[in-house]
Amino acid sequence: MDRDRSTKVIAIVALCVAVFGLSVGFAAFSNDLTIKSEATVKPNASDFDVNFSSSDTSETDGTVTATSTAGVTAQDATINNATAPTISGIKVEFTEPGQSAKYSFFAHNAGKYNAFLNNVTFKNAKDANTNIACVAAEGTNANMVASACQGISIKVKVGTTTFAEPTPTITSHELPIDQYEPVEVTIEYKTGAARADGDFQVNIGDIVLTYGSVD
């Protein structure tokens, strides 16, 4: 019995030695394989796409009709997203202070990124250094027009925020992918404003909403 036990022990030791020798033999050699990689991502600029829409269920160019107070004549405006998204033709005829007209439409995020309203720019009217400039018609007193012009205002409401002057820094105003937010443009001849003794033209500069991919 003792002999058998010794034989088993020797056999186990011999096997261990053999395995150890085999392991050392493999560990003695090495070979490095190096993989060098590079990737470039070039996003498509057209994937960022915010447009105007006359509907809040499907993006639609077309006509926007104003709602106005009594005595106001307001022309229909037109949305065109063919190149740079634009709503044009906003034109209102007032007869006295206390009148206003409002155009309501939507901004639609048709792109593949969340969009953030970065700023609202009120550009100068043609041949003027302010957003609103008034020109007296023939026979109308220019001084009276200058006073009445101070009562003319335009403001833009985007979502729940109203802008009545340039706002170069806007934060936390997000328009998620495929979502719509309401836009309102209101032109007003304020109650209690001065009157002129004849017709006058009100020139209003473009208002630009700038959306970006980052806040």
* Helical/strand content category: alpha+beta
Count of separate DSSP helical elements: 2
| Shape call | elongated
Compressed to H and E, one letter per element, the order equals HEEEEEEEEEEHEEEEEE
Count of β-strands: 16
Radius of gyration, Cα only, in angstroms? 36 Å
Proportion in β-strands:
35-45%
> Low-confidence parts, pLDDT < 50 over ≥5 residues?
1-26
Please give the alpha-carbon distance between the first and last residues.
Answer: 85 Å
pLDDT average, as an integer? 88
- Considering DSSP H and I runs of 4 or more, what fraction of the residues is helical? 10-25%
Major β-sheet profile? 6 strands, antiparallel
Topology readout:
Elements: H1 2-27, E1 50-53, E2 62-64, E3 67-68, E4 73-74, E5 77-80, E6 86-88, E7 92-93, E8 99-109, E9 115-122, E10 132-136, H2 142-149, E11 152-158, E12 161-163, E13 174-175, E14 180-189, E15 200-204, E16 207-212
Antiparallel strand pairs: 1-8, 2-5, 3-8, 4-7, 5-6, 8-14, 9-13, 9-16, 10-15, 11-12, 11-14
Describe this structure in words.
With 215 residues, this protein is of the alpha+beta class. The chain is 16% helix and 36% strand. The protein is built from 2 helices and 16 strands. It has helices at residues 2-27, 142-149; strands spanning 50-53, 62-64, 67-68, 73-74, 77-80, 86-88, 92-93, 99-109, 115-122, 132-136, 152-158, 161-163, 174-175, 180-189, 200-204, 207-212. Strand 5 (77-80) and strand 6 form a beta hairpin.
